[in-house]
Amino acid sequence: MIVYRIAPEWQAELTQVDEALAKLPFAECGATQEKSIGWVPPRGEAHGPMAESVGGHWVLRFMVETKVLPGSVLARKVKDKAARIEQETGRKPGKKESKELKEEAKLDLLPMAFTKQGSMWVWIDPKAHFLVLDTSSQGRADEVTSLLVEALPGLSVSLLDTQASPQAAMSHWLKEQEPPAGFSVDRECELKSADETKAVVRYSRHPLDIEEVQAHIDAGKLPTKLALTWNDRVSFLLTEGLQLKKVSFLDTVFEGQGSGKDDGGFDTDVAIATGELSQLIPDLIEALGGEGRTGLGGEGRTGLGDGAPAASAAPAPAGENDDAPF
Hints:
This protein has helices at 14-21, 71-89, 95-109, 138-151, 166-176, 211-218, 251-254, 266-287; strands at residues 2-6, 35-40, 52-54, 57-68, 114-125, 130-133, 157-159, 183-193, 200-204, 221-230, 234-239, 244-249. By secondary structure, the protein is α+β, with helices and mostly antiparallel strands.
């Protein structure tokens, strides 16, 4: 997950968001189209709303389809075309003509190419002003935030930023064996050297309260990933870039929950995910010293916040395709 802070001055109604996203619905790729993007109803119901509200939390779903065209297949097609030209004219195609042949070959092959679909859950907390994307790819996140900024007038977001860097905090927690209140250190981490060697040490399913880990930190290696559990309810992997990976809700979260049969479990899944994460995120921010190193307050802020890519940033490939929200 990648978390953004929404500028407090942005105010919108759910109906406005739904209407804006409905202008960019997802459609499958055409015969010669390499990529298609758009929004789909989160519940999976045909002609359903593009934005759903559960307990005041807004849920969206972004979909991408790409044509899978192996480079070796394309190269062989271009080679065949070039060979035909050489046979017919007695000359080899030049650089410009070779580029045109590649585009021509691609158009020939795309109608026969397999397609790959991926989706991403998007959660907006309008009260706490958080935007959360269910992806670990910054490129994919940039693509979606750019589309949202373009579609929703006045929306301005910035990557969540904290007073203490996650790397410095994780290093302290491991070295001193003092995790922040409400959190416990689990059995997975990655340490990387900051020098030119870029040496990496990984621990998996291994206790981290050992002298060996502290020795690595003393030697200059810094944590890039650390497994944590929050309040015995949610486990996750915190990264140096303040991303949350491998988020898992523990058994205590599901005690007393209904079956959710009436809506296929959608409302229940959303309520559980947003209910837990809306408490975890503020606690994690507090554990990292609060917000404030850059934030959204400075002048000259762009639509995507200080230091973030502009709204016209080039789209990146898609990937995630989860069945349940977050």
